[in-house]
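#struct-pred

JT: dropping the chains for the assembly here, can someone run the whole complex?
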Amino acid sequence: MSGVLIIAEHRRGELRPQTFELITAAQGLKVAAGGPDPGGVAVAVIGKTPDTLAPALSVAGVDEILTVTVDTAEFDPETYEAVVGALIEARAPAVVLIPHSVDSFGYAAALAAKAGVGFATDVFDARYVDGSLVATRGGYGQKVNVEVDFPGRATVLLALRANSFKAADAPATPPVTAIAAPPITSRSAGREFIELPAGDDVDMTGAEFILTIGRGIGEEANVAQFSELADALGATLGCSRPVADAGWLPKSRQVGQSGKTASACKLYIAMGVSGAIQHLAGMKHVNTIVAVNSDANASIFGVAKYGVVGDIFEVAEELRKRF
Amino acid sequence: MKIMVAVKQVVALDEDFEFRADGRDVDPDFFIRDLNEWDDFSLEEAVKIKEAAANGATAATAPSAAAPAAEVVAVSIGPEEADDVLRKALAKGADRAVRVWDEAIEGSDPIAIARILAAVAKRESPDLLFAGVQSSDQSFASTGIATAAFLDWPHAAVVAKLDYAPGTARAVLRRELEGGLLHEVDIQCPAVLTIQLGINTPRYASLRSIKQAAAKPIELLSPADLGLTSSDLGEAGSASRVRRMSVPDKGRAQLIEGDVAAQADQLAALIREFKGESV
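RK: done, full complex below.
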């Protein structure tokens, strides 16, 4: 068992950015003491025309690109299970890296169960300790770090959390090898992609100053106070998932993994937002994050630059008086 | 028509929690237990389908005296405390509740739990099996989809919309992808679907239904009842093992102290500074 196998993720003809983070993570495992050496790093891309994605995957750190041509252009769980399962059997990698993403939620656990490999998801650190692979993930709503290992497993499948590793981007020219796909029987079929209706014409992605409200606002009637405050401050009002799911604000204002990314934001004030991983994915890169929360242990304080432990309604009311 | 819904009793931690002596878990004295948030949505989705089936059946034909047209079975793997979430499920519309437990299950990862759920599903033969996308405590996002593997059923994860007519061989669903994109998928049944938050609005149980649920039986099964042995369970049946837990670095939040007026003063100063710089 040697080497690292990475499964590239792509959608609508483009590689997903997490793929390049996996390439960086693989370098750490490759050179680690006791790590899989001298095995290389192979990146497999599975699709209808996988060759078209090979040039973009040609970055430093990739020793080989494997293209597997299948009938389906887009992600399909049983197709990925069959192909990745066959790749594991043929190449016997020590570690298989995939993104912790909606697509991998759809097949990784089934593959692990069928292939009998070691398995952990939402991993943000992986290293060899005394010759054994140890992966670190969050537990109890990110209140603790959990180190897991994989006794007796020759191959370990790890789904890595987004933004935990820097994206590899230096150009290189790894060889490309076509691999024949195994027989595939899929009992589900992707039909089409559907963009969520905009809801309103707010531009969360372009906003520089965002005031976000979360579950802490308690009820719909309280939205008005924060909407008015955001106007007074000159901020764009955003929200976390529970507020959008309840229909208190349109989905177009949701910041996070399944909503918008606060790409242009410089000042982000989060009020009553606990800081679920999915929300952090959309905002933790912002330079100045201010968190207001009554729970001193809320995860949001882990990414915030400034924190106020207190009642969001009182803080909002006092702040409103100053603008 | 039957839908099996996997429900988990999740754990939140008390403010000043402590680790167990072996350092591999938190001391259970600091556990605050509740129904996994995702499971509330999958349960509601199942009950909605059941209710629609019942209404349809009444409209089309005379109600039959036989077994109900549709049944929702809630299943949890956990110790006695997990009866609480099963009672909640019964109060919200599940018809039956099943709990599987044995001390040998302790230390199971999602793969081992999935093996048990699959064994229950083989016994129940549902048309659909729902699980939450993930649990709020350990967030593996794995149990439902691994269960599908042990059953060799089709599966789809992060389902945000579902069209399923009871008794039909296929369902159409929408997976919620990153960045506000949906992917429509046609799937053969029986299937395992993991249900996303927001797919519906979970109901509150009425006082009356809570009282009725308290009187309903919860079927208790052991792994042996399901044909499972100790090598299928716990650490032996798992794809990972917990070595150690620790408290993460608290991060870099600089706390703004003082009374609320002083805090607002400082927040206002931060905002003015930002606006001055960005003009």
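JT: nice. The longest helix of chain B spans residues 37-60. Chain B is about 30% helix and 25% strand.
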